[in-house]
Write a structure and sequence with these properties.
single chain; alpha+beta; Spore Coat Polysaccharide Biosynthesis Protein SpsA, Chain A; 7 helices
């Protein structure tokens, strides 16, 4: 039986749609779960604190959820099943930016150049099957605690932003430098709470409007 921490960093207030999703979240009976949250204006500090708690208290997995996500009740069970069957230790669900141009928070290229600046590009087409990415947001990530520990051993500060990247992409870059692979399951779809809830159906409709082509360039 695996021990799983459900980790929720947040700034202050939590949107009602997220709490409705959390209230319905199913927890697979073959694992044990604990909920942990940190509130603060510096999100990388909250993530570092939660990661360290998972490492030091013996959790096997951390299931990261941002407090502006909506999701189906079986999301955790499905991600645990995929990770275990495919032997994956870093797995993300699919969600989209909550502001224009509403692109997927998934990157097929994420590197730091010789000047110390970040080079990145979003995926352009969403595959139908499990696929590898160079980076992802941490809105919905299932990760083995051993990955967090390996990154901490090499870099000390796991989530400190680097090269003008956010804390989540900074962690992804560090994890890849440690030899880990990042996978995304496009069947795990989430909504992103903004002025409206941004999900795949919204994104596909938005992208299909001809005048949006110029905005995406």
């Amino acid at each position: 039986m695996s021990k799983v921490m459900i980790a929720i960093p947040c700034m202050d207030q939590v949107p009602t749609p997220f709490m409705q999703s959390m209230a319905m979240l199913a927890k697979p009976g073959e694992h044990s779960f604990a909920l942990a949250s940190r509130t603060g204006s510096l999100i990388y500090n909250s993530r570092n604190d939660l990661a360290l708690q998972a490492i030091t208290t013996g959790f096997d997995w951390v299931f990261w959820l941002d407090s502006d996500m909506t999701f189906q009740p079986d999301i955790l069970a499905r991600m645990m099943k995929t990770a275990e069957e495919k032997n994956i230790d870093f797995l993300s669900g699919l969600y989209f930016r909550r502001v224009q141009p509403y692109t997927p928070v998934a990157f097929d290229h994420l590197e730091i150049d010789e000047n110390g600046d970040c080079e990145w590009s979003n995926i352009e087409k969403i595959p139908e099957e499990l696929f590898e990415v160079s980076g992802c947001g941490f809105g919905c990530v299932l990760i083995k605690t051993s990955v967090l520990d390996a990154v901490r051993e090499k870099y000390a500060d796991m989530f400190m932003p680097v090269a003008h990247m956010g804390e989540d992409l900074s962690f992804c870059w560090r994890a890849r430098q440690c030899g880990f692979h990042i996978w995304m399951d496009p069947s795990i779809e989430l909504g992103h709470v903004g002025y409206s809830v941004i999900n795949r159906k919204f994104y596909e409709f938005y992208s299909s409007v001809p005048e949006r082509e110029e905005e995406k360039k």
